[in-house]
Design goal:
The N and C termini lie far apart (50 Å). The protein folds into two domains: 25-56 and 308-408, Aspartate Aminotransferase, domain 1 (Alpha-Beta Complex), CATH 3.90.1150; 69-305, Aspartate Aminotransferase, domain 2 (3-Layer(aba) Sandwich), CATH 3.40.640. It contains 15 helices and 15 strands. It has helices spanning 2-19, 69-82, 90-94, 97-110, 121-132, 147-156, 169-179, 203-212, 241-245, 271-280, 282-285, 292-305, 308-330, 350-362, 392-408; strands at residues 30-34, 43-46, 55-56, 114-118, 137-142, 160-164, 185-191, 221-226, 251-255, 265-269, 334-335, 342-346, 365-366, 368-370, 381-385. It is an alpha/beta fold. Helices cover 44% and strands 16% of the residues.
């Protein structure tokens, strides 16, 4: 059988990944969530770890909304009313009122004309960039953009592709200058928050640079930002990198599965853009939407976010982020400072990263080791992600484990 030969080759590749320390390893399976008690936030039980409780410091659920009773209630009510799945793609009979209500709410949240939901943020990036790229499109992209943007560019096959140095606005301008004459349309694509580092794109610098080149392209320069890690967790009211920088981009890609704690992705832009994507994006046309219950849960999260309780949660998230960041620095660890709850501990060595992650796990703290090729060589790190349901005690415990590692090595 041909599969025998493929199995042999893939097995060799897997062995190489494991021996070089680049594999992700076996997935941890969470078997139970223990609700907050006393001065502790939620704890987690993991299959094969008995009754050992874990602090989850590697979750994208920045606002800690997933376990709120009112969010769960909204999801359950919608499931009772509409069932557990849409049963069809949007343009046949898969569109339900919660989908429309959520799209309206997202457009209002971002102060954009229109919104459109996809099955995930990764799919959203593919479903936006691919249809907006034709044979006369030039794409200009930050070198540290997320894998979804990289894959979307590969799929799109633009007329020309320019990669500028990370957050280097002078290099962006140079690349735009090089791009003139190579296409009618130019897409400038960046992450809002760079998920491996927690730093952000300076929209307030990027947008004016792009506007300088607007007249040099027949169909203009369009700014696109994937702010999946920023929305909900960044900015005074959780509006993401646009709010933090005080600058709007043309198209925002976001997620429902990180700060909002649910599932799915979306894009907000002009109505003309979303109308066009509904007709041309295969990732939207041929895929079922998120469930009605997921849409209803997200609507509830958006409502909560604009209440005093929601705003207090954002403030607490920033406070815990700064506490953890300062703790790392005080212990002599290297990090990348910023207001976003992604707090990287820069290790810059693959074996040591694996060793530290193993030590943390043995002591009840979950962090994510990031090695090449996920990050460039020399940029290996442990990515910690602070959540709004972390307490002072939780942060202190994680820092104590890191202190013990430092003292014992």
């Amino acid at each position: 059988m041909a599969l025998n030969k493929l199995n042999e080759r893939l097995g060799n590749d897997l062995t190489d990944l494991r021996e070089s320390g680049r594999d992700k390893g076996a997935e941890l399976v969470i078997t139970e969530v223990i609700k907050p008690k006393g001065d502790q936030g939620p704890r987690y039980l993991i299959e094969g770890k008995g009754n050992q409780e874990f602090v989850k410091m590697n979750a994208n659920s920045y606002l800690g909304m997933a376990m709120l009773p009112e969010v769960i209630e909204a999801e359950e009510e919608a499931a009772q009313k509409y069932g557990v799945g849409p049963g069809a793609v949007r343009f046949i009979s898969g569109t339900h009122k919660p989908h429309i209500d959520l799209e309206k709410k997202l457009a209002e949240f971002h102060e954009k004309e229109s919104a459109m939901i996809f099955s995930s943020a990764y799919v959203t990036s593919l479903g936006v960039i691919f249809p907006l790229t034709n044979k006369e499109t030039v794409v200009v992209s930050d070198e540290l953009n997320h894998n979804c943007i990289i894959q979307a560019m590969r799929l799109s096959r633009p007329a020309a592709k320019m990669i500028y140095k990370h957050n280097d606005m002078a290099d962006l301008e140079a690349k735009l200058n090089d791009a003139v004459g190579k296409g009618k349309r130019c897409l400038v694509i960046t992450d809002g928050i760079f998920s491996m580092r927690g730093d952000h794109c300076p929209f307030e610098e990027l947008v004016p640079i792009c506007k300088k080149f607007e007249d040099k392209f027949e169909e203009g320069v369009i700014t696109i930002a994937d702010d999946s890690h920023g929305v909900g967790a960044f900015g005074k009211t959780g509006r993401g990198t646009e709010e933090f920088t005080g600058t709007k981009v043309d198209i925002i890609i976001g997620t429902l599965g990180k700060a909002f704690g649910v599932n799915g992705g979306y894009v907000v832009a002009s109505k003309t853009v979303t109308d066009y994507l509904r007709e041309t994006a295969p990732m939207y046309i041929y895929s079922n939407p998120i469930t009605c219950s997921e849409a209803a849960a997200t609507i509830k999260v958006l409502e909560i976010l604009d209440t005093p309780f929601g705003q207090k949660r954002i403030q607490h998230l920033l406070k815990m982020t700064k506490k953890f960041e300062k703790g790392l620095v005080d212990l002599g660890y290297e990090t990348i400072p910023g207001d976003h709850p992604v707090v990287p501990l820069m290790v810059r060595d693959t074996p040591k990263t694996a060793d530290m992650v193993n030590y943390l796990t043995k002591n009840g703290v979950l962090g994510t080791g990031l090695n090449f090729p996920v990050v460039p060589k020399g940029s290996e790190e442990i990515r910690f992600q602070v959540n709004a349901d972390h307490t002072e005690s939780d942060i202190d415990y994680a820092l104590e484990v890191l202190k013990n590692y430092r003292d014992s090595h």
